[in-house]
Amino acid sequence: xxxxxxxxxxxxxxxxxxxxxxxxxxxxxxxxxxxxxxxxxxxxxxxxxxxxxxxxxxxxxxxxxxxxxxxx
Length: 72
Fold this sequence. Notes:
The protein is an alpha+beta fold.
C-alpha cells in the first residue's frame, strides 16, 4: 500500500519499521519509512538503493513474499 489507513492515528512521519540484517556478511541496520520513493534508509536516515534488498530476496516478488510471510 502506498497510503496507510492508520494515518489518522499515527502521522506518516512516525511510521517506521527497522531491522538489523546481515547482508553479504555485513551487519546492517535498516529502516523502512512510509513514502513513495527512497523509503529504505540506512545510518543517519540516508536513502539506500532498493538493489540491496532485492539481491538478498533472490528475485522473490512482493506478492510471493506476502503470501509466504504475511499474517492474514
